[in-house]
Amino acid sequence: MKKTISTLFLGLACALGAQAQEYNLFADVDADGWLWFDSQEKIDKYVGICDEENYKVDPNGKPIQLVYADIMPDYPETTADPFWEGAGADGEIGGEGYRTGALITAPASASMSPNGGGFVVLMPSCTSYSICLSREGSTEVRMMASKDVNTPFTNYDVITAAYALVLKPLFRGGIYTWSGIETLTNGNDGAYALKSDQPIYAYFQSLTADPIYIHGIRVTTPTNSTMAIKETQAKTSHIFFEGNRVVLNEAARIQVYGTDGMKMADSYTDQMDLSNLPNGIYIVKAGDSTRKIAIQ
Fold it and tell me: What is the pTM of this model?
């Protein structure tokens, strides 16, 4: 009898263990399940652009989609750069513990303004959701979501918000791991969390008047199935720098942004002279390629 009880108990424990299994949403993760944006190959594979015309998810796009800032007339873009240096523990760029590679959110028009850029993750289901991000100063954000792929971003439900006026910033500078996001809710009637057995779309939006650097994301799901990954065509736009001049291997649309997300130049060409820009750091985008240049 004792053997039978032990056998039943072991069987129940195995069943419960199988039920609690989690699977990584992304394939190219480290030992802890983190997808880091530290290579162009990973960015090309997983990161794309949302349906910009309709300001919503592109259901045929990549599982991580960049969202521009909803600020007229330029609508600054959120970008991705595998060479971007984030803030370290001291809140300084390149400080101790900093990470290289990031999604760089377009800033909001002012602190706590709900119009900054961000990114949305298309999830077939969700067990856990974490983000690693950095900033030089106070960081204000909100996490939004929808269960309908056709919902415009302006109609997404607020899951949680972190800002200084009523609550407090998400963090006050440095490098920060935001975990347990899947359990957060706004407490209103009809509120729901990201944790779901069904498809759900999680939209991280900046409420900060400066860029936020998203270095990595960790998403697990309750079933062993991932979003379809669209293969990226071979790149034709390779960016080179000759002093303060941008040179491409063939003509393409070149866009240049300041670190505040403001577009400084935009032209279809195979080279562009940036000598007339003020000294500083700029983001150069051509086709699917993104590089950073220092004008001195």
Answer: 0.73
